[in-house]
């Protein structure tokens, strides 16, 4: 979700096999460098594999270029990496959120499993509760929210959406990303 | 088991990976032992080469990566795993749930297969983060009793192993008593 | 069979030298002189276009090449080897970068990629080193040197914050891209050097001495072109005109080369070659 000079990204913590909950401590947001964050929904094994793949790729980028990767460049890296597996894809729908350190502008985008980028200036949703998230985000989001208001908005949007999805929930992680600060908050949420 | 026939009733479906990490496995007959021994050999090789053991979390990462590689190969292993270990650096016990798709999660308690449906609810109710071994064994007894009571197949008892700071040891587990459904 | 028994031609001599590389450098040092000068707002690459006979159609051959819209290259040494390297540089800038990140490589990354190609030729079986030295000039988007200086001065006001920021962006793996012009030389061995101004080829030594005298900090691009032509004049053997001198510049975005207009945010290439007419104009003002 985009705010004024800030972005937020949030995920639930459930890991399950269909209706059976296996773990309630499985974060789906990963940090690459100071400001760039990647959210991954989909097949759990690919969430782990893809997050590790990008950790490797971004670390190599940082060593080669002696700088942090920008969210835009990272988004294109995600896209080309996913499309590389066009005929045997990773079963994930990633979301990228970050702030470009050069111009200080927020950036978010989403992808399908083969890397088609979906740019947005408001919000991106993904996962089993995406239908519900579209509803809550459409209803709660407004332009130019400050960091605290953005936190409240994204948290309410996520919690209320996952409460209406049997396959999501069990607490949440929320990241508020500002130009030189990232705040991570843990939400308890409904434990049932 | 081979079809409907029981071939062996006391097979130990665990492998010790190093001094304080134990892996239990279930799944396709040939795959299980093949994969478990492959992992065991590689973890032991690491210990020999580097004169230090992998911690349980490092081990879980290695096992997951190998299983994930296998998943997208021509013939994937169909093996579900539980990895129990004691991390000597943090002095904390750890448990990892890994399925044949190479999903991996650190968990306080876990089960695979049909047993999940019976055991997880009991564990949800009775497990606390700071229970002692004795209390744990009591909950385990409740679980096996429930399996005997509800599971339509006779699973011929369980092997119980404990992993702690001293290492891994098998403990006696009285399996004789008949449990009847109420 | 050929691949199994193809040993490297480049082997160490007992004194620790790789003579094949030294021979390659000899080839470079017999080549036509090329030079590059970095200015505050751009770079100039210049070389002499020599032809043995007046029957050659000079306008259809060229020694300065565009690699990416913001990076250009010139050489001293063997022409055929250079064209192979131009092809490889253009290819690697796409396969190794644009197709992955959807943007062109920064100058240093491209230089490293080209340098790797040249280094591999000193260690592989069945090949000889490239008989060229290159000058690669490029412009990178990012924080410009003067901008950075201004920001640093502004921050000196409150010391604590400045220090904190220094810690944050410090270290080799943090921070953001330093933008602006950069000029590199790449040698047959695969080693590369960043320069403010340099020359390669036959009269490199005398040209460098000349450049040392003429170069000043904070040079403007127009002055750099002027100095480049003066330097070339010292070393050139034949007549100097728009057909015998070749100049490439890295400067402000050349939007007229875009082929279209009216698209917001579309930028033309920063690297472009000067036309013979433009060169003639500079020469008359010399």
TrEMBL record, chain A:
The keyword Cytoplasm applies. Its EC number is 3.4.25.1. It is found in: Nucleus. InterPro entries: Ntn_hydrolases_N, Proteasome_beta_3, Proteasome_sua/b, Proteasome_suB-type. One of its GO terms (molecular function) is hydrolase activity. It comes from the Eukaryota. Keywords: Cytoplasm, Hydrolase, Nucleus, Proteasome. Gene3D superfamilies: Glutamine Phosphoribosylpyrophosphate, subunit 1, domain 1 (3.60.20.10). Transmembrane segments: none annotated. GO terms for biological process: proteasome-mediated ubiquitin-dependent protein catabolic process. Its main location: nucleus. It holds the Pfam family Proteasome. GO terms for cellular component: cytoplasm; nucleus; proteasome core complex, beta-subunit complex. The 26S proteasome consists of a 20S proteasome core and two 19S regulatory subunits. The 20S proteasome core is composed of 28 subunits that are arranged in four stacked rings, resulting in a barrel-shaped structure. The two end rings are each formed by seven alpha subunits, and the two central rings are each formed by seven beta subunits. The catalytic chamber with the active sites is on the inside of the barrel. This is Proteasome core particle subunit beta 3. It comes from Saxophila tyrrhenica. The lineage of its organism: Eukaryota, Fungi, Dikarya, Ascomycota, Pezizomycotina.
Automatic annotation (TrEMBL), chain B:
Gene3D superfamilies: Glutamine Phosphoribosylpyrophosphate, subunit 1, domain 1. One of its GO terms (biological process) is proteasomal protein catabolic process. Its main location: cytoplasm. PROSITE patterns: PROTEASOME_BETA_2. Component of the proteasome, a multicatalytic proteinase complex which is characterized by its ability to cleave peptides with Arg, Phe, Tyr, Leu, and Glu adjacent to the leaving group at neutral or slightly basic pH. The proteasome has an ATP-dependent proteolytic activity. InterPro entries: Ntn_hydrolases_N, Proteasome_beta2, Proteasome_sua/b, Proteasome_suB-type. Belongs to the peptidase T1B family. Component of the proteasome complex. This is Proteasome subunit beta. It is found in: Cytoplasm; Nucleus. GO terms for molecular function: hydrolase activity. Keywords: Cytoplasm, Hydrolase, Nucleus, Proteasome. GO terms for cellular component: cytoplasm; nucleus; proteasome core complex, beta-subunit complex. CDD domains: proteasome_beta_type_2. It comes from the Eukaryota.
Automatic annotation (TrEMBL), chain C:
InterPro entries: Ntn_hydrolases_N, Proteasome_alpha, Proteasome_alpha-type, Proteasome_asu_N, Proteasome_sua/b. Pfam families: Proteasome, Proteasome_A_N. The keyword Cytoplasm applies. GO terms for cellular component: cytoplasm; nucleus; proteasome core complex, alpha-subunit complex. Gene3D superfamilies: Glutamine Phosphoribosylpyrophosphate, subunit 1, domain 1. SUPFAM superfamilies: N-terminal nucleophile aminohydrolases (Ntn hydrolases). One of its GO terms (biological process) is ubiquitin-dependent protein catabolic process. The 26S proteasome consists of a 20S proteasome core and two 19S regulatory subunits. This is Proteasome subunit alpha type. It comes from Saxophila tyrrhenica. The gene is PRE8.
């Amino acid at each position: 979700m985009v705010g004024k000079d800030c972005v937020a990204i949030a995920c639930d913590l459930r890991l399950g096999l269909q209706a059976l909950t296996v773990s309630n401590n499985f974060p789906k947001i990963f940090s690459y460098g100071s400001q760039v964050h990647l959210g991954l929904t989909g097949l759990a094994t690919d969430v782990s594999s893809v997050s590790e793949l990008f950790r490797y790729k971004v670390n190599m980028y940082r060593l080669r270029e002696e700088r942090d990767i920008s969210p835009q460049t990272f988004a294109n890296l995600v896209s080309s990496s996913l499309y590389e597996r066009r005929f045997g894809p990773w079963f994930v729908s990633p979301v990228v959120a970050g702030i470009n350190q050069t111009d200080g502008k927020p950036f978010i985008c989403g992808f399908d499993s083969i890397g088609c980028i979906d740019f947005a200036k408001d919000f991106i949703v993904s996962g089993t509760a995406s239908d519900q998230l579209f509803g809550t985000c459409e209803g709660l989001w407004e332009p130019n929210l400050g960091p605290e208001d953005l936190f409240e908005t994204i948290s309410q949007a996520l919690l209320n959406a996952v409460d209406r999805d049997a396959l999501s929930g069990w607490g949440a992680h929320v990241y508020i990303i500002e130009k030189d600060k990232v705040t991570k908050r843990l939400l308890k949420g409904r434990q049932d | 088991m081979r079809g409907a026939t029981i071939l062996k009733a006391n097979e130990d479906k665990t492998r010790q990976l190093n001094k304080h990490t134990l892996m239990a496995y279930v799944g396709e007959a040939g795959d299980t032992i093949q994969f478990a021994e492959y992992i065991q050999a590689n973890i032991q090789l690491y210990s020999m080469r580097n004169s230090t053991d992998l911690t349980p979390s490092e081990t879980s990462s290695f096992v997951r990566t190998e299983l994930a590689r296998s998943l997208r190969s021509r013939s994937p292993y169909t093996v579900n795993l539980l990895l129990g270990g004691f991390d000597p650096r943090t002095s904390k016990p750890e448990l990892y749930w890994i399925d044949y798709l190479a999903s991996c999660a650190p968990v306080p308690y876990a089960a695979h297969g049909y047993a999940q449906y019976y055991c997880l609810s009991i564990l949800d109710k009775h497990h606390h983060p700071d229970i002692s071994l004795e209390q744990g064994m009591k909950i385990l007894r409740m679980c096996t009793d429930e399996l005997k009571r509800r599971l339509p197949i006779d699973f011929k008892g369980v092997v119980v192993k404990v992993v702690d700071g001293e290492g891994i040891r098998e403990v006696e587990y009285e399996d004789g008593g008949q449990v009847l459904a109420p | 069979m050929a691949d199994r028994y193809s040993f490297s031609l480049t082997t160490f001599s007992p004194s620790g030298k790789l003579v094949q590389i030294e021979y390659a450098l000899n080839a470079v040092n017999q080549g036509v002189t090329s030079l590059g000068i970095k200015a505050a707002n751009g770079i100039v690459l210049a070389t002499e276009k020599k032809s043995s006979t007046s029957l050659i159609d000079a306008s259809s051959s060229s020694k300065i090449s565009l690699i990416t819209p913001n990076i250009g290259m010139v050489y001293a040494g063997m022409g055929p080897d250079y064209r192979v390297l131009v092809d490889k540089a253009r290819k690697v800038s796409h396969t190794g970068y644009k197709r992955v990140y959807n943007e062109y490589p920064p100058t240093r990354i491209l230089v490293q990629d080209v340098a790797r190609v040249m280094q591999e030729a000193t260690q592989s079986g069945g090949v000889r080193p490239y008989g060229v030295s290159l000058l690669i000039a490029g412009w990178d988007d990012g924080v410009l040197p003067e901008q950075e200086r201004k920001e640093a001065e502004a921050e000196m006001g409150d010391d604590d914050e400045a220090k904190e920021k220094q810690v944050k962006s410090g270290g080799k793996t943090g921070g953001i891209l330093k933008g602006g012009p950069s000029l590199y030389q790449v040698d047959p061995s695969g080693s590369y050097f960043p320069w403010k101004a340099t020359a390669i080829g036959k009269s490199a030594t005398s040209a460098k001495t000349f450049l040392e005298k003429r170069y000043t900090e904070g040079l403007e691009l127009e002055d750099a072109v002027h100095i480049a032509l003066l330097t070339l004049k010292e070393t050139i053997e034949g007549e100097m005109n728009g057909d015998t001198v070749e100049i490439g510049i890295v400067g402000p975005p050349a939007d007229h080369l875009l082929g279209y207009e009216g698209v917001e945010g579309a930028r033309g290439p920063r690297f472009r070659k000067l036309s013979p007419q433009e060169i003639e104009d500079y020469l008359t003002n010399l």
